[in-house]
Amino acid sequence: MSFAPVPPPIRRIDPDAPATIARPGSNGVAGAAAAIQEAVAERPGTKGERMRINDLSIAYGTKLAVREVTLPVREHEVLALIGPSGCGKTTLLRSLNRLTELTATAVSTGEILLDGQSTHELEATDLRRRVSMVFQQPNPFPMSIFDNVAFAIREQASRKPGKAVLEPLVRDALERAGLWDEVGDNLDHPALRLSGGQQQRLCIARALAAKPEVLLLDEPCSALDPKSTEIIEDLIVKLKEQVAIVIVTHNLQQAQRVSDYVAFMYLGDLVEYGPVDQVFNAPLAERTKNYVAGTFG
Amino acid sequence: MSTTARNPGPQIVHKRGRDSVSNWRLIDRLALYACWAVGIGLCTVAAALIGYMCFRGIQYMDLSLLVTNPAVGASQADSGGFLSPIIGTFLLTLIGTVIALPFAVGAAIWIVEYGRPSWLARAVESAIEVVAGTPSIVLAIFGLLLFSGSIFEPLSFAADNGAVVGKSFLTAGAMMSLIAVPLIFTSTREALMQIPAQVREASYALGKTKWATIRRVLIPSVRPGIFTGTALGMGRIAGDTAIVVVLLGATLTLEPQGDIPLIKTLRGSGSTLTSYVYNNSPAGEGNAPQKAYAAAFVLLILILILNFGIDKLARRSKKESV
Amino acid sequence: MERSVKDAGGGQSPAAKMEKRAEYSLGALSSLTLVLIAAMVIYVLSKGWPSFAHNGLSWFGSSGNVDQQLSEIFNSPANPKYYVYKIGTWPLLYATLLTTGLAVLIGIVVATLAAVFIVEFAPESVKRIVSPVIRMLAAVPSVIYGLIGILVLVPFVGNEIVSGGRKQSVAGVVQLSGASLIVAVVILTIMICPIMIAIVADALRAVPRGWTEGATALGANRWRVMWTVSVRAARPAIIAAAVIAAARAIGEGIMLAMVSGSVGFAPNPLDGLTFWFEPLRPYAATIVDNAEGLSVKPFGQTMYAIASVLLITALALSLGGAAAKRPLRKYGVRL
């Protein structure tokens, strides 16, 4: 890598090393690596790829946060990023819509492709309209519900869209987010007066309004009560038919409930990637096994 | 796509991707240009202001002006320099600051550390806001009204018909202090509020009384804040003209009154750089714009030093004490 | 269990007495400001009262050439029974409203754009220059603004911009020397911008990151994020800034006395473009111009009446501005 000063040495994955012998200091990464590469490879007949991350490394200044990660984001699929705190999951998520650029010291190598095009060559505003994000803390704007949901549509249009154009789109987004029944009768209600769970669903509706291709969710339920969490998890499973979803979560049960594929990250490395059943019930890497069993977190 | 281990060739390091302005709506682009225009415009105005002042100031400035007193003269050449206005500015700034300090610091300490009853504390804070917002011309003529009362004769002097004139360095200085009080108060109060509660608690735990804590622990640590506020206050006092014009008598040179040395100067009238500039401009008697430029130049340098130089010193001392 | 210091023996320990003394003396010292404000309002109002009493509400109205009325008051006979008080200060009131209103309106737009520039668009190197520049503009004394105004801008406007023909067109009514509304407004706007920029910039910086990041993540460009989210959230600060700047503008006497023309004339908007070049004289400038005549009783009382109008207005605006600032302090905006 060409960052200066010299970054820590790259741990090279040796595909020839035996898969399951636990050596002191190793984490059984070898066998997992082979599995990753297989799972990541395009296979005919499987679902199409919306986004692809190739050899992505991200550093803040000289501190490496994500190290050579390769992952696909497929349509009609929920990809969960799991791992202990500070291991690069959120950084990886935020790099998908180039939100990492808001930090002045962030640099990256490798590429992220959206429908085959490098995200760095797309306009940032275009990229973010196609790849939408919902944050951990619900952050509805200090405006009415209608204005919140219509925000992205208004930003996308080249001239001011009239109410007649906006109303059906807003209604559609609120329905898809499962909020229409609760707020449909009074869309001028200030968004900040909704409950936490409703606010988060409003944020999801807002993110869906401009019909994105990919939806990024950064621990969307961690600030919510169990009932709201359940509602949103159902929502996620329903939504994957319309958008590809990438979700970062600390909650392993949640990952099992909602996702199709799981990527386990540890200290910036992608340790294991595969279908949810495999990662949770028959993980290949020792470290994955320990994390999933709750030995550390 | 190959799945073998990749051989990293020359890698592209991305900092920021494409984020060009050309995609924006026209009105957004106009707004962006407007922001830039305003930002650069303000800098241009400031540069023009300072530049022109320096240009004219250096053109008409003569070091002899700093050491000769103004004199009544027919032409520019013999109307003298502005030594006494300079002395006047220093005197007035000094008096104003000396009077302001105990009031401002005392009020800040009382509000932050005591502040009982709370309605009184809020009233005092509002009163200081009101003082800060009062036009200095109103302060000036209030001062005149106040100090014309015979009880205040020792502060100035009496005219021939016995009426107290009320115009002197002391009276002007007293009203000038009102200009500095809000600045010193705000600065001190901010500094006091930034001291964490643990510092006070530690001092009480050691057995010190509240008052002793204030004197020995808190005041020393807010010294930089007091310093900054004082520098700002001095800058504002030095730059004020209305109070000088009304309350200082605007005599060309210092005219002491009475017999006691030093006090007699303070009781007397005089002028400052600001009133000198005003009087020499076309708005005053003024057919001496050259002198006005020179004096304004000196005044500007003085004020910039007060505002920026002392502020830098305060910041350095804060860094050392931390 | 603590025993209050007061219980010790029949009196208080010397330390406790010292405490009480310290608290009361500091409190008394602080309360002096209240006494001062009260005294100021009472003194100035009572001294100016005769002028209001003799004119009633028409004191604010238009009853003739205000400069002529002022000189008649000044030349009142020495006998108190024959003091002249008649005055209709409408031209002065109008001048005050015009200069302050225009300066604040233009200034708030300029200040908001400048604040957005400083907070969002200025590159680091430019930021490092612009902030001290703004602070410096705030530090320049009003007499220097006035000096440049009267020695540079006024002759420029008078000779280069105002044509002979224009001067002729109003020659019967007023002289167009260049000391005018437009010079006054331009300089006054520059003088009040720094205060507003500081307040608005602080408020923009204090907008919660959740909102700005959220808007960015939805595809809004940098200007739109600023405009639809930050500026909107900073609206109370913008209002507070305008109120505080208005208080400053109303009280500005020296600079306006030097550049606005010192004629008690009410510029006529029906004059078209000439409106901007007509002289005027707001309240504060009137007092500055007439400060020597305070010893003549009725004249002094008239001036104090004007001062009390300024005082009450400044009081209202300062308290209003302070009230507007208070909720902002909650968000950590340093004002």
Sequence-ordered SSE layout with sheet pairings:
The complex is a heterotrimer of chains A (297), B (322) and C (335).
Chain A: H1 29-40, E1 49-60, E2 63-74, E3 78-82, H2 89-96, E4 106-114, E5 117-118, H3 124-130, E6 131-134, H4 145-156, H5 163-176, H6 180-183, H7 196-208, E7 214-218, H8 226-239, E8 244-248, H9 252-258, E9 261-266, E10 269-275, H10 276-281, H11 286-292
Parallel strand pairs in A: 3-8, 3-9, 6-7, 7-8
Antiparallel strand pairs in A: 1-2, 1-4, 4-5, 9-10
Helix pairs in contact in A: 4-5, 4-7, 5-7, 7-8
Chain B: E1 13-14, H1 26-60, H2 83-114, H3 118-133, H4 136-147, H5 169-194, H6 197-205, H7 210-221, H8 223-239, H9 242-247, H10 263-266, H11 273-280, H12 289-321
Helix pairs in contact in B: 1-12, 2-5, 2-8, 2-11, 3-5, 4-5, 5-8, 6-7, 8-12, 11-12
Chain C: H1 14-55, H2 66-74, H3 90-121, H4 124-139, H5 142-161, H6 164-169, H7 181-205, H8 209-217, H9 222-233, H10 235-251, H11 254-259, H12 283-289, H13 297-330
Helix pairs in contact in C: 1-13, 3-7, 3-9, 3-10, 4-7, 5-7, 7-10, 8-9, 10-13, 12-13
Overview of this structure, please?
The complex is a heterotrimer of chains A (297), B (322) and C (335). In chain A, 35% of the residues lie in helices and 23% in strands. Chain A has 297 residues and is α/β, with parallel strands linked by helices. In chain A, the strands form two sheets. In chain A, strands 6-7-8-3-9-10 form a six-stranded mixed β-sheet, with helices on both faces. In chain A, strands 2-1-4-5 form a four-stranded antiparallel β-sheet, with helices on one face. In chain A, a hairpin with a 2-residue loop joins strand 9 and strand 10. Chain A starts with 28 loop residues before the first helix and ends in a 5-residue tail after the last helix. Chain B folds into two domains: 27-58; 80-321, MetI-like fold. In chain B, helix 2 runs parallel beside helix 5 (169-194) and helix 11 (273-280) runs antiparallel to helix 12. Chain B contains twelve helices and one strand, in the order βαααααααααααα. By secondary structure, chain B is mainly alpha-helical. Residues 1-10 and 331-335 of chain C have low confidence and may be disordered. The chains are: A alpha/beta (297), B mainly alpha (322), C mainly alpha (335). Chains in contact: A-B, A-C, B-C. The interface between B and C is large, with 83 and 85 residues.
